[in-house]
Amino acid sequence: GQNIDQPTEMTATEGAIVQINCTYQTSGFNGLFWYQQHAGEAPTFLSYNVLDGLEEKGRFSSFLSRSKGYSYLLLKELQMKDSASYLCAVSQSKTGRRALTFGSGTRLQVQP
Amino acid sequence: EAGVVQSPRYKIIEKKQPVAFWCNPISGHNTLYWYRQNLGQGPELLIRYENEEAVDDSQLPKDRFSAERLKGVDSTLKIQPAELGDSAVYLCASRDSSTDTQYFGPGTRLTVL
Hints:
The complex is a heterodimer of chains A (112) and B (113).
Chain A: E1 3-5, E2 9-13, E3 18-25, E4 29-37, E5 44-49, E6 53-57, E7 60-65, E8 70-75, E9 84-92, E10 100-102, E11 106-111
Parallel strand pairs in A: 2-11
Antiparallel strand pairs in A: 1-3, 3-8, 4-5, 4-9, 6-7, 7-8, 9-10, 9-11
Chain B: E1 5-7, E2 10-13, E3 19-24, E4 31-37, E5 44-50, E6 53-56, E7 65-68, E8 75-79, E9 88-96, E10 101-104, E11 108-112
Parallel strand pairs in B: 2-11
Antiparallel strand pairs in B: 1-3, 3-8, 4-5, 4-9, 5-6, 7-8, 9-10, 9-11
């Protein structure tokens, strides 16, 4: 089976930087995804890591360490619209990245 | 390009009644997923289709849930009879095989009274 852990809630200030951590235990790891989900809306894709290291995409960056079973999502220059849930999801090689297992999500609240 | 389309967006039914959800994936996406998402939780996979074949339905409660994707495009998820614990958001997603990225529809919020 798979086990994915991420903090339930986080609070940060507009303009600041926040790091959302995700740890996972899985057999046959084959990639890690981050999704953003605003309340009442569908999850939207943010990033994908399959190799160790940092992937940067504008204000958002995602890091992966496969040996540690650890990833983080880094959000810079926070804006009020970044208030949302952030979902960490892992794929396994047996499904060839066709299936994802999601964590419970981290609800981020950005304050003025 | 149109995204994943789902209907209805909201559904309220009484327990023991049947209900059906419809999904139209992004054109060209062969893999289609149905997820259930409870409040404060991440999506949980119910079933995955590769074209018209259900290749992973291990999490689908088969005594009351059924799904079909007859022509490998649109899909329908049915619950009969519904129970109180089925209240959740039912999400459909399809996968871009060139990037391995799943794209989600807006979901159907089901309330069972």
